[in-house]
Amino acid sequence: MLELSILFPSVLNGLTTGAVYALIALGLTLIYGVLHIINFAHGALLMIALYGVYFLHQSLGLDPYASLPVMVPAMFALGYGLQRFVIGRASHGKDENILLVTLGLAIVMENLALYLWRSDTRTIETAYTFTTVGILGAMISIPKLAAFAGALAVCAVLLLLLAKTDLGRAIRAIAKERHGAKLVGIDVEHVFAMSFGIGLACLGAAACFLLPAYYVNPQVGNGFVLIAFTIVVLGGMGSFAGALAGGFIIGVVESVGGLWLGESLGQIGIFLIFIAVLLFRPQGLFGART
Amino acid sequence: MLEIRGLRGGYGQVEVLRGISMSIGAGEIVAVLGSNGAGKSTLNNTLCGIVPAFSGQVRFDGHDVTRSRYTDIVAAGLIQVPEGRRIFPNLTVLENLALGSYLRGRAKREQNIERVFAIFPRLGERVAQRAGTLSGGEQQMLAIGRGLMGEPRLLILDEPSLGLSPLLVEEVFDLIRRLNDEGLTILLVEQNVGQSLAIAGRAFVMENGAIVFTGTPGELLANSDLKRAYLGI
Ligand SMILES: Nc1ncnc2c1ncn2[C@@H]1O[C@H](COP(=O)(O)OP(=O)(O)O)[C@@H](O)[C@H]1O
Ligand SMILES: [Mg+2]
């Protein structure tokens, strides 16, 4: 049987990873909720953001956390432009087209990354990479702790924006009633692009929090997109609270599962949950039954 | 206030509006009648910039708005309460009203919300309720309230009495009259011929995307052929 002294650090570790998962899933669920599409490019865009943080560190010596004010607006702008001028235009308003466009974008970006940066796995080293602190007897690294706090803070800001601002209300309104939104003067194309931009801004932030304790290579996004997709399904498609809760659940399951079954099998738990949710609660934990 | 000349429009290649001409003066209630599929809602959505016009012209307050974006049309004060309400079901009553002033009337949002609650006390009792869980009548009140939040200069009401109980229908028509007394110009699209003609100053009858009658309610009611052919009364 597992002892508490092993279990607790593992849960803690899972929670820190889970916060970053939640941030990535929040972006995915936001885009899903508004545009009614799974953004298949989400993982590839996270990869781009990770390279962004990596090169800012390598060429300018910018600390990953100091990259936040660069990466968040840059990813937002990329998302806004992508939706407004590429995805929106190429899809002609058909949801199934958007799906193919994002899938195509993912393939292009991944191959471009392979071509430009090779398949090497890269990491960065900072002064604090291996620094740890103790929490109730469990040792946890500074980057993980920072990722936890940072991701939670960004999630909180995002949820507040969605709940309390006109933009947030417009985003939620468009998700269910586009015609009504136009009739109150909400610029639907603009809000679509804002949603996509905000979704990618989450990736920009996630990349800054991830890189100090993680790595980047052209395929790095794939694992994340599967996990993020599981979280979105688990939490309920388009549910923000669900993405948050789902992120933590998946993070802990992965971490504790790894303890039990070994690192490489830890993710099995995630997919068992995924299948169980689809079988027994297809609307997700927080999703409305329709 | 609103002038429509030879307006043609529709969906893709399909022409629905076949040359509509009409005008609405400031302070009027104008009724647009006609059977299902006549093109009334298409006309509304073309005026609002949601369905594209093929040709012809729409002038609002002297400005050509034929090809204006829907956002500019709302900003100008031409506001529609659509058929089927189209409220935001996942948002609360209060949030729905707030979004009514997303573009126009933002400065007086709080004040106008109070005004809507004074008109519809039932909405005031349900501020935090999700709009999708309101009854049909309450949803219609919310749709009208949301429209008023944009401080319309011309309000288009598309079948506001559809699906309401007789008592509520009475209430809605009373309200339309009252809003008009306060100076609001109203384009009222209805199937409820009797009550619409009772409050309208002028009426148009649409059939197959064209206007087949223009005149006062008295003239329309005196024309039994027209009534039988197009209005089924
Ligand atoms: N979104 C649409 N796409 C294609 N045709 C439409 C659409 N909406 C309405 N129509 C067609 O336009 C015609 C007029 O419809 P509508 O304007 O809704 O009439 P009314 O409001 O008078 O009942 C009908 O033949 C209808 O089938
Ligand atoms: Mg209609």
In short:
By secondary structure, chain A is mainly α.
Number of domains of chain A: 1
The CATH topology label of the largest domain in chain B is Rossmann fold
Mean pLDDT level of chain B: 93
How much is the radius of gyration of chain A in Å?
Answer: 19 Å
Estimate the helix proportion of chain B, in percent: 25-40%
| CATH structural fold name of chain A | ABC transporter involved in vitamin B12 uptake, BtuC
Can you describe this structure?
The complex is a heterodimer of chains A (290) and B (233). In chain A, 73% of the residues lie in helices and 3% in strands. Chain A has helices at residues 4-35, 42-60, 68-91, 95-117, 142-164, 166-176, 178-183, 188-210, 220-235, 240-261, 268-280; strands at residues 132-135, 138-141. A two-stranded antiparallel ribbon of chain A has the order 1-2. In chain A, 49% of the residues are buried. The model of chain A has no long low-confidence stretch (mean pLDDT 89). Chain B has two domains: 2-77 and 154-231, P-loop containing nucleotide triphosphate hydrolases (Rossmann fold, 3-Layer(aba) Sandwich); 89-152. Chain B is 38% helix and 27% strand. Chain B has ten helices and ten strands. Chain B has helices spanning 40-47, 70-76, 93-100, 109-119, 121-124, 136-149, 166-181, 193-199, 217-222, 224-231, and strands spanning 2-11, 14-24, 29-33, 53-60, 63-64, 78-81, 154-158, 185-189, 202-207, 210-215. In chain B, helix 3 packs parallel to helix 6 and helix 4 packs antiparallel against helix 6 (136-149). Chain B is globular and about 50 Å long. Chain B starts with a strand and ends with a helix. Bound molecules: adenosine-5'-diphosphate and magnesium ion. Magnesium ion binds next to helix 1 of chain B. The site of adenosine-5'-diphosphate (ADP) has 10 residues of chain B, from helix 1.
